[in-house]
């Protein structure tokens, strides 16, 4: 049984809510729901957050799966959290601390002593890439600058609502002004892009390989970069749309450093804990073990929620941090929505390729063929990286993708291995480590089903792959947890196991997230809003939807 590192005790029994009214009720205590609660409470509104599980944070949680080992159980890296939210909610004051990773990518090449190690030092990157291609070594810095310029240009999209054309032409004065503000963000983007508008369109629509092939020739480099184009997505880097996912994952920053990633101290639950503390300090009421069974609609308007025990909590507005499917198809009474809108919600793509494996290790993994461990036993710079395995070529990523289309998985899955305990000593006993393994591609509907035996077989495939690069890895394993797409859905409420609350494809972004019939955060039900990753601008531990 898991023990909870980040835990919030409900300040009252659910029955004592009876008859109380709030300005807002938030369904689900994921990080976006907590952000929404923080802003509402800071503005002087009375707000209650109701979380089904015993721990706040949604997929951004820290849990002790193996005694003494604390895991970022689902999400595991921080970069996309918006700096304005960190500032507005005073998250550092409330305990947020991030360990910056540099270098950040380590890719050993199987069957040789070669490896690629990338970080923020341009000269070192040039030296590393030159081992594979002198031409690529000379072009890499220009590529990073190009991607950075495009990412900087479209960043305002993350911090502003999409244009609401109905409000622009038919709304009241305030609604029209808000719509004009969204247009202003697009104008800023156009001015920043200058001559790169065509490049942005290509990134949004093209396969990642088309872009990468034009820049580079060495496969290990292209494959490492291409992993960002498919992470969390049932896509091959050869498929259209993978270019945008690539862009999405270079739009973040840590401690003011662009395109940087870090480990939150105490795991990803440390992020949610800081947001929760901030929200509570402003007056928000946070409650765990309070699963919502229904969103109440009376006379055509959302007026509150009903808990699993029948308790009704009334509010002027209801914000849902759940996925669009859970919000509109599971929590609303049948017949509340129009058939047209309901069909749009049913058509959202939640396909997920992800199986997350959390592993407790009695020692430090040793990539002895590439970068042997230090004699002292202390972690080396490459241990703090995302370690890319089975990523020697983009074709290998594509080959890992293909079996999932027919309900199977590859014998060489795409693996991203992280060891956050290499920087954060709070996660494991002295000398021990925790490993987060983000693996693709595993279908939701596995041939034969995801039985316990099937989970064990898949874990063995993954561990065998790691053992090929890191001899002795399996002997370090103290315990593990295998979270397949159905597990991610059951535990965290992620429909289909999709970590983004819906695929980040062009037809499900901006005006079409959650649906072009009701873009951004509003819904056809007055008083009901979406504040989770199923709303613009989408997934990742970002906070913007909230």
UniProtKB/TrEMBL annotation:
<protein>
    <recommendedName>
        <fullName>Pyridine nucleotide-disulfide oxidoreductase domain-containing protein 2</fullName>
    </recommendedName>
</protein>
<dbReference type="GO" id="GO:0016491">
    <property type="term" value="F:oxidoreductase activity"/>
</dbReference>
<comment type="similarity">
    <text>Belongs to the carotenoid/retinoid oxidoreductase family.</text>
</comment>
<dbReference type="Pfam" id="PF01593">
    <property type="entry name" value="Amino_oxidase"/>
</dbReference>
<dbReference type="InterPro" id="IPR002937">
    <property type="entry name" value="Amino_oxidase"/>
</dbReference>
<comment type="function">
    <text>Probable oxidoreductase that may play a role as regulator of mitochondrial function.</text>
</comment>
<dbReference type="InterPro" id="IPR036188">
    <property type="entry name" value="FAD/NAD-bd_sf"/>
</dbReference>
<comment type="subunit">
    <text>Interacts with COX5B; this interaction may contribute to localize PYROXD2 to the inner face of the inner mitochondrial membrane.</text>
</comment>
<feature type="domain" description="Amine oxidase">
    <location>
        <begin position="33"/>
        <end position="539"/>
    </location>
</feature>
<dbReference type="GO" id="GO:0005759">
    <property type="term" value="C:mitochondrial matrix"/>
</dbReference>
